[in-house]
Amino acid sequence: MRVIRQITMWLALALLSFPLSADPSAQELLAAGRVDEAIARVQSDKAKDAASYNLLCRAYFSLSEWDRSVGAGEQAVGLDPSNSRYHLWLGRAYGEKAAHSKFLAAAGLAKKVRAEFETSVRLSPDSVDARTDLAEFYLEAPAIVGGGRDKAEAEARSLEELDPAKALWVQARIAQKHQDLATAEKDYRAAIAASHGSANAWLNLALFYHHAGRLDEMQDAINHAAAAAMNQPAVLMEGAEVLIRAGRDFPAAVRMLRRYLSNSTVEEAPAFKAHYLLGTVLEKQGDTQGAANEYRASLALASGFSRAQEALDRLNR
After folding, report:
1. How far apart are alpha carbons 294 and 287 in whole angstroms?
2. Which residues have C-beta within 8 Å of that of residue 46, sequence separation ≥ 6?
3. Is the per-residue pLDDT at 86 higher than 70?
4. Three-state DSSP state, 90
5. Is the pLDDT assigned to residue 49 strictly greater than 60?
6. How many Å apart are CA 73 and CA 56, to the nearest integer?
7. Dmax (CA) of the chain
8. Using one digit for the tens of pLDDT, what is the confidence trace for 101-126?
9. Is the pTM of this model over 0.90?
10. How far apart are alpha carbons 229 and 174 in whole angstroms?
11. Is 270 helix (H, G, I), strand (E, B) or coil?
12. Which of 50, 47, 46, 29 is closest to 38 using CA atoms?
């Protein structure tokens, strides 16, 4: 009996050392931050469908490879033009490419962003993500490419029944954009109440305070975000990134990043980027060996992530 118990215990420990799925899907690989493996898995399939190209679009997007992201997104939309989410991701890819392009090219791309976001909303009017991204476009884009405050406000009204907290966030962004900071702060705090204190709503308030240079209040909001129910784990990485950019409380940033990486990661906050950020803050604290290890961990997941490679090269010089 003792031998049987020992064998049973060994088998249990062996099972714990392997992922639940012996052959994880490309989607699972992407969520785990194993972006190189996710891309290779999709590329090895000779009969790619729209979902495969959409996954490639998102994977290249996470790597800041905008041309590849756009190309894959166009393939996804071409194969399944009735899918709202594929249009949304293509619009996001066009948006990032526009942000990194010269003026004339950016203007043409901005019109494509609007077209994709509007199509996404038309195909899925109840999509909070699509309406939120469209509202942001209307708010930030000049009128010549279809932007406008009135359009952003209309999307905020449409969001009120779908997601009151998100509607308040859009209203806060509109007020902030037009320098009505008192109203913006009130709306950000109203969004926290409407979301029952969600981590993401607290992070949005922290970003507002960071932009306003109110760093003590920013840090307090980040502490609230980290303490909130963690059904939005990406907030841990994003909050740590805000602390790093602000040059505040590096030990807290390290704790948040380690906490994020010690649990299941999500696609919205790629693990390879979390390792890179952890390397960045460790380097700022003088732990060059720890930083180098984190940069290597980042590159092991995403060999094309140039920021990690540049950081490691800098340390090795």
Report:
1. 11
2. none
3. yes
4. helix
5. yes
6. 8
7. 79
8. 888 788 889 999 999 999 999 999 99
9. no
10. 28
11. coil
12. 29
Cβ atoms of residues 168 and 186 within 8 Å: no
Calculated CA dihedral for residues 142, 147, 149, 152, nearest 10 degrees:
-140
Q: Are 83 and 106 in contact (CB under 8 A)?
A: no
> What single-letter amino acid sits at 263?
N
For range 207-236, the mean pLDDT:
95
Q: Give the CA dihedral 118, 123, 128, 133, nearest 10 degrees.
A: -20
- Only one residue has tokens 């290779």, namely 40
Q: Is the dihedral of CA 172, 86, 307, 278 positive or negative?
A: positive
**Mean per-residue pLDDT over the chain, rounded:** 91
How far is Cα 4 from Cα 2, in angstroms, rounded to an integer? Answer: 5
Instruction: Please identify which residue in the block is written with the tokens 């003088």.
Output: 286
Burial 149-170 (b: 16+ CB within 10 A, else e): eebbbebbebbeeebebbbbbb
